[in-house]
Amino acid sequence: QKEVEQDPGPLSVPEGAIVSLNCTYSNSAFQYFMWYRQYSRKGPELLMYTYSSGNKEDGRFTAQVDKSSKYISLFIRDSQPSDSATYLCAMTGYGNNRLAFGKGNQVVVIP
Amino acid sequence: GAVVSQHPSRVICKSGTSVKIECRSLDFQATTMFWYRQFPKQSLMLMATSNEGSKATYEQGVEKDKFLINHASLTLSTLTVTSAHPEDSSFYICSAASSVNTGELFFGEGSRLTVL
Question: Engineering a disulfide at A92: which of A8, A46, B88, B103 sits with its beta carbon 3.0 to 4.6 angstroms away?
Fold first, then answer.
């Protein structure tokens, strides 16, 4: 079983829709959870950073972490064409900067 | 967020030559930097962990003599692809941590290497 599972299937949504992405993981030691956005031919950009369980909201973006289920989510409200990108989940344990990445989801927001 | 600069963004070289890629943390000191390789439509593959003032730690299967890493200062790490071959063509990305051991990494823009 891989440490982090993220269904890499592309996701196409109409502009204004809610985008829902998720990852599951197996390592109970993971404490820090990140979502990165990566545009084509660019490096990943840190989008959301959360510690332990709970919700975090930043503008149109909401990150949720459920450690009991080993499940994290990212929601994008009122999606825009500029949100079209690949979204990678990543996580690590305390005292460790070595990230475990999901495969990434390609999201296309159709105008 | 913190800024990590990577240079060059794109390089084309002939087979057998060596190519150096630089990674700089512009507004913070990074004791640890990471080098990744990314194939099209794939996730990031960690190649090595670069620690300032000491030898890099390479992941299993990564040739340390092929991919030379130097972390000479708290703001600069370099990756040199030696005797490059077409199969080394890839997207190379560095990252650096602005805080100690919390996983909050910031990435460079990436360098696309094409070996002819």
Answer: B103
